[in-house]
Design goal:
- This protein has about 200 residues and is mainly alpha-helical.
- The chain has helices at about 5-30, 35-45, 55-65, 75-85, 90-100, 110-125, 135-150, 160-165, 170-175, 180-190; strands at about 35, 70, 105-110, 130, 135, 155.
- The two termini are about 35 Å apart.
């Protein structure tokens, strides 16, 4: 019993130290205390007009909890905590926000196509395989809508999004983006040496 407490305390101290270091780096990079979209892209080494730019913008919107077009340190840490430690449902909820570009509470065909197209461009080669046959962006969108849009209204609600992802592994892989925030943040983190 006495040995458990120091271990937990050490883990907590490490987390506090890492948080303090992140905060110092955040303030160094963002002296105003908030991160704007252009800074967010620079932060992670994203070319403002490159292939990853649109995906980065979607991530930025999902991180910006209060919708003020900035990310403060608390939003930043909360988002990173979610993508690094969140459970499947939380990650799906986060992914839904990335897909739902206009924030109206559902994903339409245009939003779905936009993210799938971004994933294709990021990956350079299609990651959506069905046996030997590679699916086009339109085919992927159609398959997702057919499987997930239960009421057939052309819109995917959060509930449909989560339920559809949990019913079929291929849909789960697509809806949590396979380019999940965790992987994307790690890749960009390595490039920028932020942490």
């Amino acid at each position: 019993m006495g040995q458990t407490q120091p271990t937990e305390q050490n883990e907590q101290e490490i987390e506090v130290k890492a948080l303090q270091d992140m905060y110092k780096k955040f303030l160094t990079e963002c002296p105003s205390g908030v991160l704007f979209l252009h800074e967010f892209k620079r932060f992670f080494g994203v070319d403002p007009t490159g292939e990853v730019s649109e995906y980065a913008e979607s991530m930025f919107r999902a991180f910006d909890k209060n919708g003020d077009n900035t990310i403060d340190f608390l939003e930043f840490v909360a988002a990173l905590n979610l993508v690094f430690r969140g459970d499947l449902e939380h990650k799906l909820r986060w992914s839904f926000k990335v897909y739902d570009k206009d924030g109206n509470g559902y994903v339409d065909r245009k939003e779905l196509r936009s993210i799938i197209d971004s994933i294709y461009r990021i990956k350079k080669t299609s990651m959506m395989n069905q046996g030997e046959q590679q699916l086009s962006v339109e085919e992927v969108c159609e398959r997702i809508l057919r499987s997930v849009d239960v009421d057939g209204d052309g819109h995917i609600t959060l509930e449909e999004f989560i339920a559809g992802a949990q019913q079929e592994p291929w849909i789960l892989n697509m809806l949590k983006l396979d380019m999940n925030p965790y992987g994307w943040v790690l890749e960009q983190r390595r490039k920028s040496a932020f942490f």
